[in-house]
Amino acid sequence: MAKILMVVSAADRLTLADGTTHPTGFWAEEVAVSHRVLREAGIDVDIATPGGVPPTVDPISLDERGNVDEPSAKEFRAYLEGLSDQLDKPLALGDLRAADYDGVYIPGGHGPMEDLAQDADLARLLRETDRSGKVVAALCHGPAGVLSTSGEEAGEGFPFAGRRLTVFTDEEERQGGLGESVPYFVESRLRELGALVETGPAWTSKVVADGNLVTGQNPQSSADTARQVLRTLKEKGAA
């Protein structure tokens, strides 16, 4: 059975451009739907956070402020409650080895911009996973996590420069995110580092697969991103 490490932000606040903070966390749909698609396909999924800190769901991702209707919010709540054992006691990134997994999957919410983007343990796991050709997947703001690999390591540059990917767009951030209040725009930061960002229309599903790298643009891409991960795992003989 293939095994995926789902890396979830443990941040419950995002430091804004003006130095104030805004409540945040992980996006409910992106964790719940991605996890469900993977598990229904028979994939074993571990959940980890920086330091093993229990993650916080962004409250906006469970009501109309996040354009989530009540039936969907109820569905996501119920699924996350079913994951309470893992979410209440997640694994700690620093204790894990890339060799023990067939891939890493990073869902979004604004949280990853606060902690995963600078996390040295995540950087190590992503570099090792990518070097071995295993799946590196990220969804919506989750690609902020790959920014952790942008620091020089043994003379290496950003490993995802020149790679095709997608991410929650600057347009979407301005339309329905935190706009100019964010400390940085993830799409712009990735472009600056040399990633080849491909985007679809705002708020529609868009998935980009470039070899072992699989990325989704927004919450609407959650199921399609997880399905592409399954296809990539099968191509690699891991599922």
Automatic annotation (TrEMBL):
Keyword terms of this UniProt record: Glutamine amidotransferase, Lyase, Stress response, Transferase
Keyword Lyase (UniProt): yes
GO molecular function: glyoxalase III activity; transferase activity
Gene Ontology biological process terms from the UniProt entry: methylglyoxal catabolic process to D-lactate via S-lactoyl-glutathione
Pfam families assigned to the protein according to its UniProt record, in alphabetical order: DJ-1_PfpI (PF01965)
Protein name (record): Type 1 glutamine amidotransferase domain-containing protein
A GO CC term attached to the entry: cytoplasm
PANTHER family documented for this protein: GLUTATHIONE-INDEPENDENT GLYOXALASE HSP31-RELATED, PROTEIN/NUCLEIC ACID DEGLYCASE DJ-1-RELATED
Stretches assigned to the DJ-1/PfpI domain: 28-231
Family of the protein in this entry: Belongs to the peptidase C56 family. HSP31-like subfamily.
